[in-house]
Design goal:
Elements: E1 10-15, H1 19-23, H2 28-47, E2 52-57, H3 60-63, H4 68-74, E3 78-83, H5 92-101, E4 105-111, H6 113-126, E5 130-139, H7 146-155, E6 158-160, H8 162-172, H9 180-186
Parallel strand pairs: 1-2, 1-4, 2-3, 4-5, 5-6
Length: 198
């Protein structure tokens, strides 16, 4: 069965984009690229009124907060929730919040690909969500995450790029980016929002 992303049925999950994990990347250009691309994802989902859950792994005093630019972009449009578990669905407060959203599709990005992203995707799939993972917005301190990606895919997670997500969301609305329905529902599409990750 072909699964298509339906904006009204989605929520976004940005997992643990915190100083502790970002610092493991080493290369400042890679870190900057992750931060910018995550900000653009938040903007894209915000345009389509897709609710966003952002997690912080505890202890936050040690693992750190979100990057300041990302926190500014999110403002009060995202639900920021702390977690003690690798799998965000094991945290009662998060699971309750997600069930209140009444959405059936999850768009996932963040870190670490082979730990919290993997476990959270498995948890979401187990709860019956259709899971779409934005592969170029994942990161990990590990060099090889191929086994984790293969595991998520074998369990039913669908991998796509930021660019694919961008155009699939636009295509989901009758008439596309410049159609009357898109303008009436969401307003003018932001010209400065890039269509692919950097």
């Amino acid at each position: 069965m072909v699964k298509r992303i339906v904006p009204d049925e989605c929520f976004g999950a940005i997992i643990d984009v915190q100083e502790f994990f970002l610092s493991q990347l080493g290369d400042r250009r890679v870190r900057s690229r992750i931060e910018v691309n995550t900000i653009n994802l938040a903007r894209l989902l915000g345009y389509f009124h897709i609710p966003l859950v952002v997690t912080l792994e505890r202890p936050v005093y040690y693992k750190g907060q979100l990057p300041k630019a990302l926190k500014r972009q999110l403002g009060d449009r995202a639900e920021l929730l702390e977690k003690d578990f690798f799998d965000l669905t094991k945290e009662r407060k998060i699971k309750t919040y997600l069930s209140r959203l009444k959405k059936k599709q999850a768009i996932v990005a963040g870190c670490e690909t082979d730990v919290c992203v993997l476990q959270s995707c498995l948890g979401l799939l187990e709860l019956g969500y259709e899971v779409f993972v934005v592969e170029d917005l994942l990161f990990s301190g590990a060099r090889n995450v191929a086994a984790a990606i293969a595991r998520m895919q074998s369990e039913g997670a669908v991998f796509l790029t930021y660019k694919s997500l961008y155009y699939e969301l636009i295509a989901a609305v009758e008439g596309g980016a410049h159609g009357d329905k898109m303008l009436a529902t969401f307003g003018p599409f932001p010209d400065d929002l890039p269509d692919c990750s950097t």
